Each structure stands twice: as C-alpha cells, then as structure tokens.
Amino acid sequence: MKHEFHLIHIFAVLVVSLALERDDYKGGWNDNHDSWLTTQRCNIRKIHQKSVMSADEFRKYFEDEPVIIVGAPAVLNVKTRNLCQKSELLKMYGDLNVTLSSANTFSHARRIVKFSDYVDQYLNQHTLDQVANETWYLFGDNNHSEWKEIFQSYIEQDFFYDHERLNGRESSLSFGIGGSGSGVPFHVHGPGFSEVLWGRKRWFLMPKGVQPDFDPDETTSSHFFIVPSATYSLQACVASYKVQLNASG
Prior knowledge:
Helix content is 20%, strand content 26%.
C-alpha cells in the first residue's frame, strides 16, 4: 500500500537543500543555533548504501516508506556541494534577484530581493515569536537558466529518476537555502528526494488520514513544542552527507 505523508520540516541549522573537507568546515555558513534544534531523535529508517541503488531495488524494498540513505549516493554531488559554499554562491549570484516565499503552510506571499541581501539580512536564527507568514526563505521559484551552474552540476539519483519515469511522472529540481529554525509547517507532500548539501534539516511526517491540530501561520519552530512529540509518526534530522526519500503518495 502506498502512503501519503503530511509533513513539517525545520531547517535545524542553515541548509543549502561531497567534498572531503575537515570535519569542522561548514562551507562558510554560520550554523549558530539553539540546543533544541539538535535533538537526536530519529525514527525514520536509515539505509546504508555501499553502491548506488537501482530503480528495481527501490521499488522492491523502499517504495512504501520514507527512508534516509547514507553512504554512496552523497559522493555524486561533490561539485554541487562545493559550488554551494557561501563565498561561491555570493560570487556567482550576489547581485541576482531571487524570489522568497513566506514560510507558512500555503506560502502564498512572495518577495523579491537581491541574493546577497537575503544572505546578509534574512538568514539570522528565527525566533519562536516570529509568525510563519512574516518569515521569508528561499526555496523553489528557481529560474534554471539563472542558476544553471547549480542545476547543471547536480546529478540526479538514477533510481529515483527512473522510478518516477516508470510511473509516468517527471522529476523537477528545486534549490533552497533556509536560516536556522526556519521551514514550513505541516503540508501535504508527494514523492520526493531531498539532499542536504550543508547543514541539517529536520522532518516530521504523519501518515495519510492523520490531521494534526496546528495553525498554518504559526512559526515552524513553535510546532516543535506545541505538538507533542508522541503525535509524530516519524521524525528525522537529515544532515550533510545524507539524503532522504519520501514515500510515494
């Protein structure tokens, strides 16, 4: 049986959603954050891959549940990870106008700013008293021709690309950067593949038919405390060098 998940995700530290640098290197990004963002709870199954998975393997073993893939797939995108260092992105795109979305469930509002202003002014840690419809972050609304260096360098995982194609769907790449504590409250999500290039991203997933009680305009961070942890069916923090696959809806 296929599952559709309601999910909420929080950027636990700044995420740009593999070079073998020293362990303390963060790509130039500031990862200052409150301790609650680094909770170790993770009950989503982790798959340690020594080789790249095939579409048949994925369909047989992992199609019906979200999983975190650790290992081989991460090394495919060394070039993209290097391009997403803070200094590199500012050098390439500092003067580029980017479209920000409000960080509430439906993300209707938009704001256009220079990318350098977004990095300098919008990526400070988000506080619990901020409301989501007044919190802005960069995700989606990407002009692929303007961000071509990023999109052309990124290597899609064959097993996911092939799986979507075999099911009559096309994959579409999106690129985003969010500050510590930012993110989007609960919303419905179809099948997806998420790779964290820098930082960490926390996911909360609930099965189809389970509707949490929440305010779509509350800050994402507040739901971490408002909704009891026992309510979440699945929870994980996906860090650099790991990727997450959401089950098909």
